[in-house]
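Mods, move this if it's the wrong board.
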Amino acid sequence: MDATQRDGAPYDVVIIGGGICGAASARALTRRGYRILLLERADFASGSTAAGTRLVQGGLQYLESGRARQLHESLHARERLLRSRPHLVRPQPFLLPVYHDERRAPALVRAGLTIYDVLTPRKVAPWSRTFPPRAVERMEPSLATVGLRAAFGFHDGLVELPERLCLEYLAEAREGGADLRNYAAVDFILGSESGGRASGVDYHDVLTGRRHSATARVVLNAAGPWVDDVLQATGRPMRPRLRAVRGTHVVLDLEGRGPSHALLARGRRNGAPLTVVPWLGLHIVGAAESPAEGERPERTRPESYEIDELLDAADRLLPGVGVNRAQALYAYAGLQPWGEPGTRWRPAQRLIDHAEDGRPGLFSIVGGTLTTAEATADQVVKAVRRTIGRAARRSGPRALPPRAPGNVSFLPPETLAHLRGRYGQRSADVAAYAGQDPSLAAPISPRHPDIGAQVAYAVEHEQARTVGDVLLRRTPVGRTRGLGRAAAPRVAAILQARMGWSDAERAQAVRDYELELHRTLTLLRGREDPGGGLAADEPPAAAAEDRPA
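Not the wrong board. Structure tokens:
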């Protein structure tokens, strides 16, 4: 079976990768009228997009290294997101403490943050401030104050659910007519006989094994840490384009005793940057970064020593809490694209034209981030326009966004507010499922505000195909307290009704979710959960065959 447009015409662009950069590029290209096919080998937003610190940063690291262009670009991109996606991206207050044993002087930090403010276009959040140690003691009593010279307050951006930001880009691309397919792995990049121009892809459905082909005028490699793997699918030698690092994070449950500000500090032992970010009632500590030469992205796991280093650094920074391993719910790690081999600094993003490698029509994104994904997409649009010209006018109808069929005002105000915070202007479309079936108005777990209507919407409009798709990416239920175990049977029952599963398939879906938890997260602490399941520190009964996670 061939994947072609309904009128038989080829696609303009095939995008390989459904992470934040691929999704933003699909949205930008469809808005300009191009015909798009996006293929993701696992689930949307399941790779590097879900493996970071969940910050939308203006680029303090660029300020420290004197890279003015990247700093300006990141600051502009951060403000763009804060203004255009306020339900998903919000200003996050930070404290930056400076201690006596650090080389940097408070005056230098103050000057740097002033530049950070001045260069920010149409600034959303307040300007930075300086706090004396006594004020810091009142603001954050858990923070270490011995040797504290000063602390500085500033704002960056926090996106609690980068997966939902990615899904929002994809929803806008779908409404513009894009063809989006998750669990679709590319096997080969097709090339024309003359000149080796990229002309499409062969791919298969990971869950069913069915094979397909698609023709296109441009192929965009947006596979994140899998960029070099995709280049090998051209069938010709291609030099490596990616240098990646493994970033490890630990999620803590400090039971309300942690800092209310995000913290950005130097590790007191090795001087590496350390962030502690409040997140959905928990705290994310990160990132321990290590070289990842030859490491497979789908097999990336936190190392025990990295977890211990992060916990030790957090304990030194927060002596008022006494951070220890008993407070750690889980750790996670992911490969973050860092640029090309031999590069010293991480670029904001770079678009590579592989015409220089003898494969015109093939482009790769290296180094894109949550913050700069839209700027990356703008570069992609320009490159596509240079390569194949402007998109032709399209006479056929485009996909229309779903609309709520009835009144759903019976939902509690807190539930409606929760849906608005997750879905923005699409919240009424989600709530409509509860209007059609009142049972979908009930929470899927006693621990969370997420309701059954979100599961139905995830299946019908966001291509969720597994319990993990819902609990780990369409909602944050699987990444917070309880790890979604109480919700898994309820989610599987809704999926069964929507997808026609048998009872055996529904039971298997719950077991598959438990296995995905152990593939995706390093579980550090067990907690009683009404839904049952394995203890968090107990390995699954049988190892599953490796599948994309």
